[in-house]
Amino acid sequence: MTSKLAKIEINREILHYRKIMVSSLKELIEEPELVNAEDPEAKFTSSGVNWQAYETLLVKLADNSHYRITYLDGVLEILSPSKKHETIKSRLAILIALYLIRKRIKNLPMGSTTFKDSSQKVGVEPDECYCIGEEKDIPDLAVEVNITSGSVSKLETYRRLGVAEIWFWERNELKLYHLRDNSQQEQAIAFSETYGYEQINKSEILPQLNISLLIKCTLIPDSVTGCIEFAQGIT
């Protein structure tokens, strides 16, 4: 009887969070200011969300690839990306793919796959990610486009998953971070201010990649021209 009552209570809690999330998502989508914005992008954040409710939401949105969902220690963040966000993401993905092909680097692009670990209370969906060399459970490189700031630390999220390198596109620049503290401690000890990551100027995953050229060609309005110039600059 106690077990049955506990199960009923859990189901009630899941339904409670589901109602809150669906309602909030509906408000997010139908918010007049966002609908009328020239290029809307919004983030919905909710705290006190348990793991089961997070997984329930993932199932509910499984067929909707529009949203990006991040979970860290009970804080849930749902991103509804803008046109600008998706344009930058796509251009970066094309240029990175071009580089990998031209350099004949074996890789597995994994897009916006959901990576999660219940023991670490963490889940994330990068804009783009890659396994370099052989396929792995966790990507070597994740790429994030940040148009609007969020409340969840993406670096801490990726540290707990053990992703080696993160690239953040912010204000028309790429910021690169490489994991130095990959211990399973509750908090990073080395480079604690950046959650165990060191900011770097050159990728350690793709050391021959010209980051300045990648940024320049991503910003070229005509994507074909950008690809041609980028390809010519690959040495």
Structural write-up:
The chain is an alpha+beta fold and 235 residues long. α4 crosses α6, α4 packs parallel to α7 and α6 (211-218) runs antiparallel to α7. The chain folds into 2 domains: 2-80, no CATH class; 83-233, Alpha-Beta Complex (tt1808, chain A), CATH 3.90.1570. The chain contains 7 helices and 11 strands.
Mean pLDDT: 85
Helix content: 25-40%
**How many domain regions?**
2
Order of adjacent strands in the largest pleated sheet: 4-7-8-9-10-11
Q: H/E order of the elements?
A: HHEHEEHEEEEEHEEEHH
Instruction: Please report which band the strand proportion falls in: under 5%, 5-15%, 15-25%, 25-35%, 35-45% or over 45%.
Output: 15-25%
Helix count equals 7
CATH domain class name of the largest domain: Alpha Beta
User: How many β-strand stretches?
Assistant: 11
Question: Quick one: overall form?
Answer: globular
The name of the CATH topology of the largest domain is tt1808, chain A
Quaternary structure type:
single chain
Segments where pLDDT lies below 50 for 5+ residues? Answer: 27-37
Distance between the termini: 69 Å
Topology record:
Layout: H1 2-30, H2 32-35, E1 42-46, H3 51-60, E2 68-72, E3 75-80, H4 83-102, E4 107-109, E5 115-117, E6 122-124, E7 128-132, E8 141-146, H5 154-161, E9 165-170, E10 173-179, E11 197-200, H6 211-218, H7 223-233
Parallel strand pairs: 8-9
Antiparallel strand pairs: 1-3, 2-3, 2-6, 4-7, 5-6, 7-8, 9-10, 10-11
